[in-house]
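Aim 2 progress update. The chain analyzed this quarter is reproduced below.
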Amino acid sequence: MSENTPLIDIHEGRKHFYYFLARLFVDIPDENMYEQIASILPAFNVIADNNMMKEGCIGFEHFNKKREKTAGEERILFDNDILNDYSILFCHKDKIHLYQSEYAAPYNQSLKDELAYLYKQYGYELEDNNYTDHISYQLSFMGYLSGLTSINISKANHEMTAHLLQVQKEFLDTYMFSYLNTFFSSIAKIPESALLYYACAAMLLGYTEYDYKFLSSNINKGI
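Predicted structure tokens:
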């Protein structure tokens, strides 16, 4: 077994965490999403080392238990409530913004092109540049880079591995951290977030903070 196997597994895990978080804010909630929440929760519980991650875990556990108690017509009504919450939070006129540019003052159209250029440098391209600053595509980019990191570790490409770690740290710092606290606060104010999406937003904020510390530590160690 390669001595790098544990590190490869860690970055593969990071990839799946980011893809999971990305899905929460781009896909309409469904049975598959609920199954993913239940299956990934134990892993989040293991690494939860800050208050936001712990709140996210508690919220997911509460959601799972509450949904498990339903069946038949009651389950249908429960799931419809989640769909309604999603609509109120992200689809109505006074919706929660999902694009980084919507938090910028003044509105920054060039941000989308800037991100498109950055994505293209690493082979991560979207068909429509209007989505480049969407929170879920930014999270997916972090997942994509995490996957590239594990590949380069397996190839013992130390220079590229170090570069990718730095890119991920800077991406969080430069882009995502410019609005994630406001995003979380906006969701926390809306009562309809209580059943599921408060937990999603808390986990998002907590995990990115946790991962930033992880990236910084590995960069400092020269990994």
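Residues 5-221 form a domain with the TorD-like fold (CATH 1.10.3480.10). The mean pLDDT is 94. These observations will guide the mutagenesis experiments scheduled for the next reporting period.
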